[in-house]
Prior knowledge:
Blueprint: H1 3-15, H2 19-22, E1 27-31, E2 35-39, E3 41-47, E4 51-56, E5 59-74, E6 77-90
Antiparallel strand pairs: 1-2, 2-6, 3-4, 4-5, 5-6
Amino acid sequence: xxxxxxxxxxxxxxxxxxxxIILDLPKVTMVGNLQIYIENHKGILEYTNSRIRIYTKSGIxxxxxxxLLLKNIVVEEIVIVGEINExxxxx
Length: 91
C-alpha cells in the first residue's frame, strides 16, 4: 500500500469514515446468488452470459454463472442479475 493510501486509511479509521469512499475501493453487495451490486468500478472488460469481468482499483473482479445480465450500468455502479456461481478478485 502506498504511503498516501496508508494515511487515508488511518484518517478513515480515526474519523470512522467508510474506507470504500476514502480509498476509492470497490463495494460489492450480493443478494443471495441472484444479484450483485458493484460500486466504484472503473469499467467492464468482458461481458458474456456466463462471465463478466470488471476493472476496479483493487484489481479485476470476475463474476461467473449462468444467464448473467447487466441490469443497470451508471458511471460507478453496476447491477448484475442471473445465477451467480462465483465472485473473485484477480490480479
